[in-house]
Write the structure tokens for this entry.
Amino acid sequence: MQLRVPAEAAGQRLDRYLSARAGSRAQAQRWIELGGVSLNGRIARKADLLGGGELLSVVLPEEAPAALDDGPAAPYEVVYEDADMLVIDKPAGVVVHPAGGHRSGTLSQALAARGAAGGEPWRPGIVHRLDKDTSGLLVVAKSEAAHRRLKAALAARAIVREYLALVEGRPPARGGTIDAPIGRDRRSRRRISLDSDALREARTHFRLEEALDGATLLRVRLETGRTHQIRAHFEAIGHPVCGDPEYGHAGVYGLERQFLHAAHLEFSQPSSGATLAFDSPLPEDLAAALERARGG
């Protein structure tokens, strides 16, 4: 949704003005709290006062489908489990939680039977996500208290999330930071880009792992965790993730998906505060693509 705020709305609180379109003031506030509402390209706050004439953009947050279907359970590997949480190694091709186009076979539905809990009831325990075709590690809560603490740690950037990414070409430095706000692309709702009416801060740190002919293996650390952040950021600097059908070139090195793997996860156990760290090796398809990139 995008509209120009009329002059007669001057002086109104944003959440009150938006409530007529959201169906209720509470729903309008939920959209705002999730960061889905912007005024003139700036992420809005519910207490913002309108002046009239602003460009109001709403990117509706993902909601649960009206009804979920039963279906085959999603595959996953449990790397670690205790009373508070699980650490999961997700294979490529698995959707983390239900959304409009995926009503069954998601990871959160499979993990609900194993005790995942906390947060929204339609995606119990989910603390952070991985794209469907990104493999690797994620933490899932088993109680409301653990979910709350892990989400707070994520918001405070106290959960270390590192990825291995094979990108096209050679970045201009052995390491660095991509600090560029991103949001839903103006022309394509499928894509995230720097060309957006709803920009949100996004920072991606990277360092060189291995230089190859025509490609570079990078270790990438997320400071923020926006949708498609790594994929959009590396496309923006001219070095898209290899095999990425949306932001780069499909089929590079025989890849059937983007070469992106959540390889390292580190955080404090939500009850004891003990530091936990986990590593995941490259899955077979990415390891084979890396060998082809090496000339093997």
